[in-house]
Write a structure and sequence with these properties.
The protein is an alpha/beta fold. It is about 25% helix and about 20% strand. The chain has a domain of about 210 residues: 3-Layer(aba) Sandwich (Rossmann fold). It has a nine-stranded mixed sheet, sandwiched between helices.
């Protein structure tokens, strides 16, 4: 019996070593109060671990009782885990963290290690002027840091909704010349679909950015809906791009609600981007394994959207 258990352990270990993410540590941060990152990020971590071999640590916004609370904007414990991270995956919105937590985050960003930003990461922080890390705020006006972390590191901050939020979904269209990009490997044109709308960005994006996927605004909230005719899609807005910061690889996407993650092509985009970010693009297979792990029943962002809209907050 002991020999059987030992043999099984060796088989599992050898299998894990053959997976493309083996040996890389990823810290994923969930802290938005609209798109249910607290549901999507753990599922993403499971896929990265079980299907790709990464080692993942998931951090959450928590309230004073230590409970996971997307509305608790001032506390994400455990950010010191970034000291050993090879990749940061960020999905936060309007966080205002204490200096000790921000220091762990900023130390990682400035270390020149890869960064992966999801949807509201363009407006990840809302820190009042005069604070130590206020330049990271989405609305920063500090010279060379206008637009904060979103603009300076990812490539764009919050601008506006381009599609009609909650009424017009998004189809991903491969940017001309990007078909061979390893991040898009195994993803046919038009297969990425998200219930979230297209975000507006300023065109062109900074010169360090390379758009790889554009967002086609659809007439409704179904995957088979046609594109909106006319100027709304002329030109289409980038919804996924690469960038560099401190010589590190950066991937940013304005998709990513928990519901969006039900789309297989979008999951493949995210997994491929994680492998690319840590320099494992040569190991991205023709079709990455992105099967969901366990049960996944995401909550609709439309419930939160109606609450937020009443307060006139950006989304």
């Amino acid at each position: 019996m002991r020999l059987c258990v030992t043999f099984l352990f060796l088989v599992i270990s050898l299998t894990a070593e053959r997976l493309p993410g083996h040996g890389k540590n990823v810290v994923l941060i969930a802290g938005d109060d609209e798109y249910h990152s607290e549901q999507m990020i753990p599922q993403f971590a499971k896929i990265l671990e079980e299907r790709q071999g990464f080692h993942c640590t998931v951090l959450f916004s928590k309230n004073d009782q230590g409970e996971i609370d997307p509305h608790a904007r001032g506390n994400i414990p455990g950010l010191n885990a970034l000291k050993k991270a090879d990749l940061l995956i960020l999905f936060t919105r309007f966080r205002d963290l204490p200096d000790d937590q921000m220091k762990d985050f900023v130390d990682y960003v400035e270390s020149g290690k890869p960064i992966f930003g999801i949807r509201t990461a363009t407006h990840a922080f809302e820190i009042p002027p005069g604070r130590t890390y206020s330049k990271y705020s989405w609305n920063s006006r500090e010279p060379a840091w206008e637009g904060g972390f979103g603009r300076r590191v990812l490539g764009e901050t919050w601008i506006a909704h381009h599609g009609d939020h909650g009424k017009q979904s998004t189809r991903g269209r491969i940017v001309a010349g990007q078909n061979a990009n390893p991040i898009l490997r195994g993803i046919p044109d038009g297969q990425v679909w998200a219930r979230t709308d297209v975000y507006e960005v300023r065109l062109p994006l900074p010169s360090t950015c390379t758009p790889i996927l554009n967002g086609e605004v659809l007439t409704g909230m179904n995957e088979t809906d046609p594109a909106v005719p006319g100027k709304l899609n002329e030109p289409m807005m980038p919804i996924a791009w690469t960038n560099t910061y401190k010589n590190a690889r950066v991937f940013a996407t304005t998709l990513g609600a928990a519901e969006d993650f039900e789309n297989e092509a979008l999951r493949r985009l995210f997994v491929n981007a994680a492998l690319w970010a840590v320099g494992r693009e040569a190991q991205i297979p023709p079709k990455s394994d992105v099967r969901l792990v366990g049960e996944y029943r995401p909550t609709s962002f439309l419930l939160s959207y109606r609450e937020e809209a009443a307060h006139g907050r950006p989304h």
